[in-house]
Amino acid sequence: MKDYKQVLRLRDEGNSKNEISKLLEYKWRTMDAIIKKANEAKLTSEQASALTNREVQKLLNKPRQHKDDYMKINLEQVHKELSDPHVTVELLFNEYCAQAALKDLKPYSRSQFNKKYQNYWYRIKISNHVKAKPGDKLELGSKRKP
Predict the structure, then answer these.
(1) H/E element holding 52?
(2) What is the mean pLDDT of the chain?
(3) What letter would DSSP give residue 67?
(4) Does the residue 26 lie in any domain?
(5) 111-123 in b/e burial notation, b at 16+ Cβ within 10 A?
(6) Residue 113: its pLDDT value, please?
(7) Which of these, 10, 27, 55, 86, is most buried using a 10 Å CB contact count?
(8) Averaged pLDDT, 78-97
(9) How confident is the model over 30-46, as pLDDT tens digits?
(10) Residues 94 and 119 in one domain
(11) Are 103 and 73 found together in one domain?
């Protein structure tokens, strides 16, 4: 885990991002991101000293969006509508986005929409054993000669 308090202390002492990254052996981009977030939050090393490193990390990193903010996908309906040959996944995704906008909810991205449908499809994929009596039917295949 990164030592956020140490980064802030070194920043407040006047060290550059390059110097801090060399001293702590962190990547320069990591230092840049930490310092930028600390500047946005107006957090100083004195304020951070009263907190634990984990608390400083939580202050600087934005909270993840909850799944409640996203509109749920009716996967059964999507599967049922895809049985129509004129309906595509892209069309259903666009309808889903329009419905989400009407309800003021955030839609899943196209890749997540496809991934959720694919997982659903694999879960419900049905295959049946063909019951046949041996010798009841004769199936012939033809091989073409090149």
Answers:
(1) none
(2) 84
(3) G
(4) yes
(5) eebeeebeeeeee
(6) 95
(7) 10
(8) 93
(9) 888 888 888 888 888 88
(10) yes
(11) yes
CA pair distance 109, 115, nearest whole angstrom: 10
36 touches 84 (CB < 8 A): no
Q: Report the C-alpha gap between 68 and 93 in whole angstroms.
A: 19
Sign of CA dihedral 71, 76, 77, 79: positive
> What domain count does the chain have?
2
Examine the domain organization and report whether 36 and 10 are in the same domain. Answer: yes
CB 53 within 8 A of CB 3: yes
Question: Angle 17-24/4-12 helices, nearest 10 degrees?
Answer: 140
Nearest to 18 by CA among 67, 27, 118: 27
Q: Are 22 and 35 in contact (CB under 8 A)?
A: no
**Six-digit token string for 26:** 């962190």
Which pTM value belongs to this model?
A: 0.46
Note whether residue 129 is domain-resident.
no
Structural domain containing residue 75: 67-124
